[in-house]
Amino acid sequence: MFFACHKEAGDNSINNKLVRSISSTYHKLDSSGRLYTTVDSFVFDNQKKIAKIIISTYDTIFNTNIPQPKIDTQTVFISYAGNNPRPARIYSYKFSKTLSYDNSGRLVKDSISPGNVTNYSYSTGLIVGFSGSLNSFYTIDSISIDVNNNVVFQLLGGNVFLNSTNNFIYGKMTSWQYSYSNILNPVYTNTSLSTVLFLLTNNIQSKNIASDGEWIIYGNNGPIFRDEKSHYQINVDLNNNVQNTIDLINGDMTKWAYY
Protein backbone atom coordinates (compact mmCIF):
# COMPACT_ATOMS: atom_id res chain seq x y z
CA MET A 1 0.00 0.00 0.00
CA PHE A 2 1.21 3.50 0.76
CA PHE A 3 3.82 2.68 3.35
CA ALA A 4 6.11 -0.25 4.01
CA CYS A 5 4.55 -1.41 7.28
CA HIS A 6 1.01 -1.66 5.90
CA LYS A 7 -0.35 -5.21 6.21
CA GLU A 8 -2.31 -6.68 3.35
CA ALA A 9 -5.65 -8.49 3.49
CA GLY A 10 -4.01 -11.52 5.11
CA ASP A 11 -4.09 -9.76 8.48
CA ASN A 12 -6.51 -12.02 10.37
CA SER A 13 -7.32 -9.36 12.96
CA ILE A 14 -9.34 -7.45 10.34
CA ASN A 15 -12.92 -8.19 9.33
CA ASN A 16 -12.82 -8.15 5.51
CA LYS A 17 -16.49 -7.31 5.10
CA LEU A 18 -17.04 -5.14 2.01
CA VAL A 19 -18.29 -1.63 2.64
CA ARG A 20 -21.36 -0.65 0.62
CA SER A 21 -21.33 3.05 1.49
CA ILE A 22 -19.91 5.68 3.83
CA SER A 23 -22.17 8.62 4.66
CA SER A 24 -20.71 11.65 6.45
CA THR A 25 -22.55 14.73 7.72
CA TYR A 26 -20.47 17.79 8.64
CA HIS A 27 -21.32 21.17 10.11
CA LYS A 28 -20.57 24.08 7.81
CA LEU A 29 -17.69 26.38 8.64
CA ASP A 30 -19.76 29.48 7.89
CA SER A 31 -22.85 30.87 9.66
CA SER A 32 -25.39 29.65 7.09
CA GLY A 33 -27.18 27.40 9.58
CA ARG A 34 -26.70 24.34 7.38
CA LEU A 35 -25.01 20.96 7.40
CA TYR A 36 -23.70 19.19 4.34
CA THR A 37 -23.66 15.45 3.74
CA THR A 38 -21.49 13.35 1.45
CA VAL A 39 -22.46 9.80 0.51
CA ASP A 40 -19.82 7.56 -1.08
CA SER A 41 -21.33 4.39 -2.60
CA PHE A 42 -18.96 1.57 -3.60
CA VAL A 43 -19.25 -0.98 -6.40
CA PHE A 44 -16.77 -3.89 -6.48
CA ASP A 45 -15.83 -6.40 -9.17
CA ASN A 46 -15.80 -10.18 -8.67
CA GLN A 47 -12.26 -9.98 -7.25
CA LYS A 48 -13.39 -7.51 -4.55
CA LYS A 49 -11.51 -4.67 -6.22
CA ILE A 50 -13.26 -1.31 -6.24
CA ALA A 51 -14.66 -0.65 -9.72
CA LYS A 52 -16.74 2.48 -9.23
CA ILE A 53 -17.46 5.09 -6.54
CA ILE A 54 -20.55 7.28 -6.71
CA ILE A 55 -20.02 10.48 -4.70
CA SER A 56 -23.09 12.55 -3.84
CA THR A 57 -23.13 15.82 -1.89
CA TYR A 58 -26.25 17.27 -0.25
CA ASP A 59 -27.02 20.52 1.53
CA THR A 60 -29.28 20.01 4.55
CA ILE A 61 -31.61 22.90 5.35
CA PHE A 62 -32.37 24.25 8.82
CA ASN A 63 -33.53 27.68 7.68
CA THR A 64 -36.55 27.85 5.37
CA ASN A 65 -35.25 31.12 3.86
CA ILE A 66 -32.33 29.24 2.33
CA PRO A 67 -32.93 27.75 -1.15
CA GLN A 68 -33.69 24.04 -1.51
CA PRO A 69 -30.85 21.53 -1.13
CA LYS A 70 -28.42 21.26 -4.00
CA ILE A 71 -27.15 17.84 -5.01
CA ASP A 72 -23.84 17.27 -6.76
CA THR A 73 -23.04 13.76 -8.02
CA GLN A 74 -19.79 12.46 -9.45
CA THR A 75 -19.00 8.91 -10.54
CA VAL A 76 -15.36 7.85 -10.26
CA PHE A 77 -14.21 4.87 -12.33
CA ILE A 78 -11.18 2.72 -11.53
CA SER A 79 -9.13 0.65 -13.97
CA TYR A 80 -6.39 -1.95 -13.35
CA ALA A 81 -3.44 -3.53 -15.13
CA GLY A 82 -4.23 -7.25 -15.22
CA ASN A 83 -4.82 -8.84 -11.79
CA ASN A 84 -2.86 -6.21 -9.88
CA PRO A 85 -5.03 -5.13 -6.90
CA ARG A 86 -3.61 -1.61 -7.07
CA PRO A 87 -5.42 0.81 -9.38
CA ALA A 88 -3.61 1.94 -12.52
CA ARG A 89 -5.95 4.85 -13.22
CA ILE A 90 -8.91 6.60 -11.61
CA TYR A 91 -11.05 9.07 -13.53
CA SER A 92 -14.33 10.95 -13.74
CA TYR A 93 -15.68 13.80 -15.83
CA LYS A 94 -13.72 16.16 -13.53
CA PHE A 95 -10.24 14.59 -13.54
CA SER A 96 -7.98 11.71 -14.56
CA LYS A 97 -5.18 10.29 -12.38
CA THR A 98 -2.50 7.87 -13.59
CA LEU A 99 -0.74 5.97 -10.79
CA SER A 100 2.76 4.49 -10.41
CA TYR A 101 4.13 2.19 -7.68
CA ASP A 102 7.55 1.01 -6.52
CA ASN A 103 8.66 -2.63 -6.23
CA SER A 104 7.14 -2.82 -2.74
CA GLY A 105 3.73 -1.80 -4.06
CA ARG A 106 3.86 1.69 -2.53
CA LEU A 107 2.36 4.61 -4.40
CA VAL A 108 5.20 6.80 -5.70
CA LYS A 109 3.57 8.97 -8.36
CA ASP A 110 0.11 10.42 -8.97
CA SER A 111 -0.21 12.27 -12.28
CA ILE A 112 -3.34 14.36 -12.71
CA SER A 113 -4.43 15.39 -16.18
CA PRO A 114 -3.87 18.13 -17.01
CA GLY A 115 -0.70 19.44 -15.45
CA ASN A 116 -0.34 18.29 -11.81
CA VAL A 117 2.05 15.63 -10.51
CA THR A 118 2.50 14.37 -6.94
CA ASN A 119 5.55 12.31 -5.94
CA TYR A 120 5.70 10.31 -2.68
CA SER A 121 8.79 9.30 -0.71
CA TYR A 122 9.02 7.02 2.32
CA SER A 123 11.07 6.51 5.45
CA THR A 124 10.23 4.71 8.68
CA GLY A 125 6.93 6.09 9.95
CA LEU A 126 6.87 9.00 7.51
CA ILE A 127 5.44 9.73 4.07
CA VAL A 128 6.22 12.95 2.21
CA GLY A 129 4.18 14.03 -0.79
CA PHE A 130 5.45 16.76 -3.09
CA SER A 131 2.96 18.25 -5.56
CA GLY A 132 3.68 20.63 -8.42
CA SER A 133 1.86 21.97 -11.44
CA LEU A 134 2.46 23.83 -14.66
CA ASN A 135 1.53 27.17 -13.05
CA SER A 136 4.37 26.97 -10.47
CA PHE A 137 2.08 25.95 -7.60
CA TYR A 138 3.65 23.62 -5.03
CA THR A 139 2.64 21.82 -1.84
CA ILE A 140 4.60 19.56 0.50
CA ASP A 141 2.59 17.20 2.73
CA SER A 142 4.05 15.19 5.62
CA ILE A 143 2.21 12.20 7.12
CA SER A 144 3.41 10.44 10.30
CA ILE A 145 2.36 6.83 11.00
CA ASP A 146 2.71 4.87 14.26
CA VAL A 147 3.69 1.20 14.72
CA ASN A 148 0.00 0.21 14.57
CA ASN A 149 -0.35 1.62 11.03
CA ASN A 150 -2.41 4.59 12.17
CA VAL A 151 -1.86 8.12 10.91
CA VAL A 152 -1.10 10.20 14.01
CA PHE A 153 -0.17 13.51 12.37
CA GLN A 154 -0.56 15.21 9.01
CA LEU A 155 0.86 18.56 7.94
CA LEU A 156 -0.48 19.77 4.62
CA GLY A 157 1.64 22.41 2.95
CA GLY A 158 -1.15 24.65 1.71
CA ASN A 159 -0.54 27.38 -0.81
CA VAL A 160 3.08 27.70 -1.92
CA PHE A 161 3.92 29.70 -5.06
CA LEU A 162 7.05 30.80 -6.86
CA ASN A 163 7.10 34.55 -7.40
CA SER A 164 8.65 36.35 -10.38
CA THR A 165 12.15 36.02 -8.86
CA ASN A 166 11.69 32.27 -8.14
CA ASN A 167 11.34 32.72 -4.38
CA PHE A 168 8.71 30.77 -2.45
CA ILE A 169 5.63 32.57 -1.10
CA TYR A 170 3.90 30.56 1.65
CA GLY A 171 0.20 30.72 2.38
CA LYS A 172 -1.98 28.78 4.80
CA MET A 173 -0.99 25.41 6.24
CA THR A 174 -3.23 22.80 7.85
CA SER A 175 -2.46 20.08 10.39
CA TRP A 176 -4.43 17.12 11.75
CA GLN A 177 -3.51 15.11 14.84
CA TYR A 178 -5.30 11.90 15.89
CA SER A 179 -5.55 9.28 18.61
CA TYR A 180 -7.29 5.97 18.09
CA SER A 181 -9.76 3.44 19.45
CA ASN A 182 -9.33 -0.34 19.21
CA ILE A 183 -12.17 -0.52 16.64
CA LEU A 184 -10.92 -1.68 13.24
CA ASN A 185 -11.38 0.37 10.07
CA PRO A 186 -13.28 -1.85 7.57
CA VAL A 187 -11.66 -0.11 4.58
CA TYR A 188 -8.07 -0.65 5.75
CA THR A 189 -7.27 -4.05 4.19
CA ASN A 190 -9.01 -3.56 0.86
CA THR A 191 -5.96 -2.39 -1.10
CA SER A 192 -7.86 -0.99 -4.05
CA LEU A 193 -10.47 0.94 -2.06
CA SER A 194 -8.05 2.37 0.51
CA THR A 195 -5.76 3.53 -2.32
CA VAL A 196 -8.58 5.31 -4.15
CA LEU A 197 -9.96 6.93 -0.98
CA PHE A 198 -6.50 8.29 -0.20
CA LEU A 199 -6.27 9.83 -3.67
CA LEU A 200 -9.74 11.35 -3.42
CA THR A 201 -9.51 12.69 0.14
CA ASN A 202 -5.76 13.07 0.81
CA ASN A 203 -6.27 10.96 3.94
CA ILE A 204 -4.57 7.59 4.33
CA GLN A 205 -6.85 4.89 5.73
CA SER A 206 -5.59 3.97 9.20
CA LYS A 207 -5.98 0.50 10.69
CA ASN A 208 -8.23 1.75 13.51
CA ILE A 209 -11.08 4.24 13.83
CA ALA A 210 -10.01 7.57 15.35
CA SER A 211 -11.30 8.45 18.83
CA ASP A 212 -10.00 12.04 18.98
CA GLY A 213 -8.66 14.63 16.58
CA GLU A 214 -7.46 18.20 16.36
CA TRP A 215 -7.57 20.29 13.20
CA ILE A 216 -5.51 23.50 13.00
CA ILE A 217 -5.29 26.00 10.15
CA TYR A 218 -2.28 28.28 10.20
CA GLY A 219 -2.54 31.63 8.44
CA ASN A 220 0.13 33.45 6.50
CA ASN A 221 3.41 33.74 8.46
CA GLY A 222 2.31 31.17 11.05
CA PRO A 223 -0.50 32.48 13.33
CA ILE A 224 -3.30 30.03 14.13
CA PHE A 225 -6.36 30.89 12.07
CA ARG A 226 -8.59 28.08 13.36
CA ASP A 227 -8.21 25.37 16.04
CA GLU A 228 -10.94 22.73 16.25
CA LYS A 229 -11.04 19.54 18.36
CA SER A 230 -13.12 16.38 17.93
CA HIS A 231 -14.03 13.53 20.28
CA TYR A 232 -15.87 10.58 18.75
CA GLN A 233 -18.46 8.20 20.15
CA ILE A 234 -17.99 4.96 18.19
CA ASN A 235 -20.94 2.59 17.83
CA VAL A 236 -20.48 -1.02 16.68
CA ASP A 237 -22.66 -4.08 16.04
CA LEU A 238 -22.45 -7.43 17.86
CA ASN A 239 -19.49 -8.44 15.67
CA ASN A 240 -17.60 -5.24 16.49
CA ASN A 241 -18.11 -3.81 12.99
CA VAL A 242 -18.29 -0.01 13.16
CA GLN A 243 -21.78 1.30 12.41
CA ASN A 244 -21.33 5.01 13.03
CA THR A 245 -19.22 7.62 14.75
CA ILE A 246 -20.56 10.81 16.32
CA ASP A 247 -18.37 13.82 17.07
CA LEU A 248 -19.59 14.76 20.55
CA ILE A 249 -18.08 18.25 20.24
CA ASN A 250 -19.22 19.32 16.78
CA GLY A 251 -22.07 16.96 15.98
CA ASP A 252 -20.52 15.52 12.81
CA MET A 253 -21.56 11.94 12.04
CA THR A 254 -20.25 9.17 9.79
CA LYS A 255 -22.18 5.97 9.01
CA TRP A 256 -20.99 2.72 7.40
CA ALA A 257 -23.19 0.26 5.48
CA TYR A 258 -22.04 -3.19 4.35
CA TYR A 259 -22.74 -5.79 1.69
What does this structure look like?
This protein has 259 residues and is mainly beta. It has a single domain (19-258), classed as Porin. The protein has 1 helix and 18 strands. It has one helix at residues 191-201, and strands at 19-27, 35-44, 50-60, 71-79, 89-91, 96-101, 107-113, 116-123, 126-133, 137-145, 151-156, 160-162, 168-170, 173-184, 208-218, 224-236, 242-247, 253-258. It has a 16-stranded antiparallel beta barrel with strand order 1-2-3-4-5-6-7-8-9-10-11-14-15-16-17-18. Strand 9 and strand 10 (137-145) form a beta hairpin. It is globular, with a radius of gyration of 19 Å. It starts with 18 loop residues before the first strand and ends with a strand.
Major sheet attributes: 16 strands, antiparallel, barrel
The shape is globular
N-to-C SSE string, H for helix and E for strand: EEEEEEEEEEEEEEHEEEE
Helix content: under 10%
* Largest sheet, spatial ordering of strands: 1-2-3-4-5-6-7-8-9-10-11-14-15-16-17-18
Structural class: mainly beta
